[in-house]
Amino acid sequence: MTAVFDRADLPKHVNVDRLYLRDRNCRAQWNATHVIARTPLTGCGTVFSKTDQTLFFSNVLSEEGHSSGFGVITRDYLFKANLTCTYPRKLTVGAFSFAPAKQKVFGNLGGQGNFSLTLDVFKNFDYLQSYRSQDYPVFKSLSDNIYIQYSINTINSNLVVRAETCRATPTNRPYDTPQYVFIADGCDQDETIRHYTRGVSSDQRFSMQAFRFLSEHRFVYLHCDLVVCHRYDYNSTCWRSTSCSRRKRRDVDKRPADVSGMYPLSFGPIMHEKLSKDKNPGARSKAMSTTLVGSLIGFGCLGVVLVAVLAYVKKRYLRRRSDPARKGVVKKGALAMQNLGYA
């Protein structure tokens, strides 16, 4: 069981170093942007319960405070969050099942107005037609490119967007494992990434070559944490180079104060396909028919040539037998060979 909290959403007084589950040996992990609590379903004090339809696994993430008054009172405002993971007891078994990803979120920046953020994958490099929910799972061969676009929709033209971190996981959970990070701190980590947008913009487009996980996972989900910036704040994340020199990489923790919090978006699932052309049975049938017709035409032409050659050879043979002069030459040569003892 994994629970992820955006640090920007936590009360300011929370001390992330003192966040524990029921078992005080199980401490929450954290980074610059998120607090992550992980526990096995049978560990860290997790409590199990059930109904006729559902299994429940629950725990509590709480902040340990400093006590006073002989350990009876405290003056700390302590954080507490109840965590519950549920599983249905009855499932319908099919060829495969998947959970679509979250492709759109809504937000608000004080004094800047409302906006929405979207993450889409397009079918071709022209970025004209995106995949929709009815297209899931999206099939890609390892030689295909994935054409990605994330954007902000707002009436405020001063707001632009940038991906802070992008990763891939085998499920629709962005912090699941295994995971492959292809953008970190706004910097490209995958050598196949190609950008099609220059500078700051309300739309960002890039592509990368498709891949699959080495382990036995059928799906790939893409997750991006987006930040919203002011267009003319040249120190913001949105103005950072995507290539990112080593010097700039050391400065990524110096986050500008006017950059918004993280907005997580996901796309998927994408499913590995051995050959892209196998997706169209009609095309395969047409190709096979064309090959068969071509083969029959080839064999027909070869048959005509063989008949012509046989006719020519037979004609030459009959002409030689009917030529008296040719017969005399042959006999004379045979006699000469006999005289020499070779015939």
Structure description:
The chain is an alpha+beta fold. Among the domains are: 2-66 and 75-88, Sandwich (Immunoglobulin-like), CATH 2.60.40; 101-244 and 259-272, Immunoglobulin-like (Sandwich). The chain contains three helices and 18 strands. The protein has a six-stranded mixed beta sheet, with no helix packed on it. Strands 8-9-11-16-15 form a five-stranded antiparallel beta sheet, with no helix packed on it. A hairpin with a 2-residue loop joins strand 13 (180-184) and strand 14 (187-188).
Report the CATH architecture of one domain. Sandwich
What is the assembly state of the chains in this entry?
Answer: single chain
Order of helices and strands: EEEEEEEEEEEEEEEEEHEHH
How much of the polypeptide forms β-strand, as a percent range?
Answer: 25-35%
The CATH superfamily title of one domain: Zona pellucida, ZP-C domain
Q: Roughly how many Å apart are the termini?
A: 100 Å
Alpha-beta classification:
alpha+beta
Estimate the helix proportion, in percent: 10-25%
Quote the average pLDDT: 75
- CATH topology category name of one domain: Immunoglobulin-like
Whole-number radius of gyration? Answer: 36 Å
Estimate the global geometry from the Cα principal axes.
Answer: globular
Low-pLDDT residue intervals, each spanning 5 or more residues: 92-96, 275-307, 324-343
Record field, number of beta strands: 18
What is the count of helical runs?
A: 3
> In this structure, how is the largest beta sheet organized?
6 strands, mixed
State the name of the first-level CATH class of one domain.
Mainly Beta
**Order of strands across the biggest sheet?**
10-18-17-12-13-14
Pfam family, one: Zona_pellucida
InterPro entries: ZP-C, ZP-C_dom, ZP-N, ZP_chr, ZP_dom
Keywords: Disulfide bond, Glycoprotein, Signal
